[in-house]
Write a structure and sequence with these properties.
alpha+beta, Trna Endonuclease, Chain: A, domain 1, five-stranded mixed beta sheet
């Protein structure tokens, strides 16, 4: 595993731990479908939450939030549709967990970061 992959895995674990402390249940990690991947799939009451975890240690190109482009959103939405087809339709939302370091006190959680509409 490369250093970059290790940092990404650590960020995903921090995100999962954070969301669980906030009352969400992590039900799947790294769901892959043709054309897209979802880092975390969680349940928040009756809502399925598709979570994108982004870590950028440099802000040269706008940081972690700016890296979630329209094309990235489209791939996440496609993967979410595949997940819902396999597991059943439920209300859902797309959240983003943003990191500029692996500091658990500096996690930024964007609820309803974008929609599938």
């Amino acid at each position: 595993m490369s250093t970059r992959q290790a940092k990404g895995a650590a960020a995903e674990q921090l995100a999962a731990d954070y969301l669980q402390r906030k009352g969400l249940a992590v039900i799947e990690r790294n769901f892959r479908a043709k054309g897209g991947e979802i880092d975390l799939v969680c349940r928040d009451a009756k809502t399925t939450v598709f979570v994108e975890v982004r870590m950028r240690s440099r802000s040269d190109f706008g940081g972690a939030a700016a890296s979630i482009t329209a094309a990235k959103q489209a791939r996440l939405i496609l993967a979410a549709r595949h997940w819902l087809l396999r597991h059943g339709e439920t209300p859902c939302r797309f959240d983003c967990m943003l990191f500029d370091s692996l500091d658990p006190d500096k996690i930024e959680w964007l609820r309803n970061a974008f929609s599938a509409d």
